[in-house]
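User: quick one, fold this
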Amino acid sequence: MFIMTFLLKQIYFLSIQILIVFSAEKITFSQDKKEKIPSLDKNVSLQVPNQGKKEAKDLTETETIRAEIKPFKINLTLKGFIEDIDAQTLAIKTNYWSDLRVVQSPKQGRMVKKDEILVQLDQEKIRQQIHNLSHELRLLEIDFQILEVELKLAESLVPLEMEAIELNEKYVQEDFKRFKNQDLPFQKRSLQMNLKRVQDYLLYSQEELNQLEKMYQEDDLTEETEEIILQRAKNQVDYAKFSVESAQKNFEDFNTIQAPRSQKAMQDSFNREKLLFSAQRKTTPAEVKLIKLKLVKMEQGKKILLKNKRDLEQDLKNMTLKSPVDGKVYWGTFERGKWSGTLPLKNKLQEGGNLKAYEEILTVCPSKRFKAIVEIPEKDLYLVQKSLIGKLIFSSLPEEKINAKIESVSESPHSPNKYHAILAFTLPKGFNNPVPGTACSFTFVAYEKKSAITLPAKFVFKDDYDPEILYVYVLNKSGKSRKKRVDVGKQAGDTLEILRGITMRDKVLKEKPKY
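Assistant:
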């Protein structure tokens, strides 16, 4: 333990000596090389002034640039197409007929005259349909006339039928009353009298038989004739007994079965007749109303058929597509001057192809007046204004420049982030008319300032926290860098227009300081 303590003390003492020797050597070196040490302020520590001078030395050596005052101009080139102002887009405008099969199609690029037929369609089916409608109309007209006669007859018969209903009802009531008060009692009495008649006949026959038997019993011998007479009398008694039995049964059946059933049947028949007469009183006038409604419906059907026929006749007329003007035929359409080409209609305009109603299929271009339509990217929209003048170049004649002026600018985009402008121009004398759909470019000065403070855009930096804030680094008089905010205007290529923030005297650093 003692040895360890001793060694530690020796090591500590030795370290102090080494530190003293090193400090002495450093002071001696500074005195020998005094011209290499910058002059220091007495009140400032040694280390801080050395760092400040080193920074100033680095900034002085950094490359700088000064803002320039020079003409500032933005040239903008917009791409587009040439459009025929008087171009006529054509379609088969049928409202009801959809079977539009091509029989003969026009040749692309052919010159045509006004009213010349461009497309021929199959018209056989629509003509047959018109013929069928005409036939239906004739049949309907005949049915209408027949129904009118039936209506007049029905109206004339209504009073007679109503009178007949009243009379028949009266007869039914009288018949029912007669049956109840006369026929039924009479039938009962008739059966009763018939029963009495056969009963009396039985008595008479029985009495006659008794008398014969008494008379023949007195004789000892009965002759053969007498036996026959007695047998006949006995048979008549038997017949009379059966007649009485039969009449008795009929009378009882009538009272218990036939009379109640007949009375019930007659009562039901009378009630049905009453209901029938009541219904006839309503249905007879209703039948007249029904005929009138049928006539109204038939009249409406006639109007519908007539309208359908006229519509198809108009469609038939519209199926004959004629040229509205003299000019050249193009398959397809032009959208803001750009031609759709023939490919979208290749299968439709060929023989046997099927078209759709109101589908724009052809364009006839007189090629006398033209305009250019150029596309404007949304980012450049603020630079494009009405009445700006520039140079128009056709892709077919890139060496020729034509004066053009912006006639209008679209207020809304025609596709995402895309607007368009219409240009007016006049072709020089002797200049061949362009083909509709020719690609073109329009170059014009979108912004110009004769004296503008400019600076390369790459030396202007965005704030890390707010990209809307722009700034540059400039050197002050002491050679130190300083961050300075600037306001910029427009940008032309790699050059920015500086509105506020720096002057021509400011030295602008070309890159951010590295500290």
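User: anything notable?
Assistant: Residues 80 and 374 are 4 Å apart (CA to CA).
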